[in-house]
Amino acid sequence: MTPQQHNRLDKLNQSNPFKLPDGYIDGLTARIMDTLPDEAPDTKTRTLSVGQRIRPWLYLAAVFVGLLLIFRGFIFLQTQLTGTILPVAQQTAMPAETDIATAETDDDIDLREYLEAQYATAAYTETIETID
Amino acid sequence: MPPYIEEEIVARLRNPDTRRAAFEQVVATYSERLYWFIRKMTLVHDDANDVLQNVFMKAWLNLDGFRGEAKVSTWLYRIATNESITHLNRLRTSAQVSIDDTDVFLLERLSGDPYFDGDNVQLRLQEAILRLPEKQRLVFNLRYYDEMKYEQMSEILGTSEGALKASYHHAVKKIEAFLTADV
Question: What confidence tier does B84 reach under pLDDT thresholds 50, 70, 90?
């Protein structure tokens, strides 16, 4: 700051253009203290609202949901790229019996049970005939 | 009222039995100084009065959060800085004034304040100060009006002393250039 600048600004600071209502400063402390509650709240014993208690669990649940969605998205992308989620070795293997069972319709189940029953009867009859 | 001794005041503020009396001593010691700091930021007396009340209310309600690591005055000035800026932002938002037009908006409020008794030169100085960026305006006011040491200013504003000195130097240059323009 040059001496001229200092002098100019310094002179402007010698007079205060900001005025106050009469007696404002005199009663200021009392007026401020009158507005304050009697006791400062004790933050150590502050009770939490239901929302504040639940919030951390909600955040945790949101994290799990987010991870689950990311995992499913990853699986979906893999399906799109390979056409199946099974490894190559498993793609050439015979389907498990459970896969066949779950693929049956009700009619197929009834037919199968009928044929099994016929086979069982036939096998029993053969056994009887053999013994005899 | 007993003499103001920082360590003793902090100890009394921590004791629930002596807290209120100690806080009253803090108010008596710092209220006027804080008022003028807030007034230089908000410019209008009624606004400064409201903000000052808010500052001490916040300090009282958050007394448990004051650990005594900084001076009481530093802590209060920090609250006053935040409350002043919040108040100005609220004013600007409610009046739907953009950030670029804030200086014009506040200058109009100052011109209409019955408790501003400045001549054209003083008004021009306030206009020059209002043209500064908000943080630079804070720095200028604290140094120019409050003659605050850069060390304490650094604690209040969270900026290095070197940066504050540079900011004040640039602020003075800008204000001088504005005041001497068209002369």
Answer: very high
3 state SS of B11: helix
A29–chain B Cβ distance below 8 A for any pair: yes
Other Cβ atoms within 10 Å of B129 Cβ, number: 24
* CA distance to partner chain A, nearest, from residue B14 (Å): 11
Residues A105-118, mean pLDDT to the nearest whole number:
71
- How sure is the predictor about A106, in pLDDT bands with cuts at 50, 70 and 90? low
Can you tell me the distance from the alpha carbon of A33 to that of B29, in angstroms, rounded to the nearest whole number? 13
Q: How far apart are CA B92 and CA B87, in angstroms?
A: 9
pTM: predicted TM-score of the whole model, two decimal places: 0.68
- Distance (Å, whole) CA B58 – CA B52: 10
| Least Cα separation, residue B59 to chain A (angstroms) | 10
Q: Mean pLDDT over residues A103-117, rounded? A: 69
Interface residue ranges in chain B relative to chain A, Cβ cutoff 8 Å: 16, 19-20, 23-24, 27-28, 31-32, 35-36, 39-40, 43, 45, 49, 52-53, 56-57, 60-61, 63-65, 115-119, 121-123, 125-126, 144-145, 169, 172-173, 175-176, 179
Q: Is A98 on the interface with B (CB under 8 A)?
A: no
Query: Which residues does chain A have within 8 Å of residue B36's beta carbon, measured at their own beta carbons?
Result: 18
Residue of A4, A9, A18, A28 best to disrupt the B interface, most CBs of B under 10 A = A18
The residue in chain B having the minimum alpha-carbon distance to the alpha carbon of residue A44 is B64
* Measured torsion, CA atoms of residues B68, B73, B75, B80, in degrees rounded to the nearest 10: 160
